[in-house]
Amino acid sequence: MHLTVDALGLPLDFIITEGQRHDIIAAPELIARSAPRCLLADKAYDTNDIRAQLDALGAIAVIPSKVNRKPQIPHDQHLYKERAAVECTFNLLKGARRLATRYEKTVRNYAAIVTLACVLCWLRI
């Protein structure tokens, strides 16, 4: 499950892919759907394509550079700490056992469970 959240940690959009698919495969579609002004992401999203897509949208990329990137691209470390809201959202969603263990056999049914869990996050406000 690939998820975008707002500044409060509330889920906005998600894509469900195979477990072995890397995060950067689904990221361009999620970025295009949500059109963020600022993207907080971990090192896995440090690619030239994602950075170019964010520049085209006029969005700020708060992504730490991978160790092997030459030269290193600086990022706002204080703003990056706010990425904890994303992790907290995943922990909240995975509190639902059905979502964490993926009992559903079809993507359609699993997407329905993820949607219900996201709605419950929004209703907690």
Automatic annotation (TrEMBL):
Which Pfam families does the record cross-reference, listed alphabetically? DDE_Tnp_1
GO molecular-function terms, A-Z = DNA binding; transposase activity
Q: Which BP terms from GO are recorded?
A: DNA transposition
Question: Can you give the residue ranges of the Transposase IS4-like domain?
Answer: 1-122
Transmembrane stretches in the record are: none
Its recorded name reads: Transposase
The organism is: Chondromyces crocatus
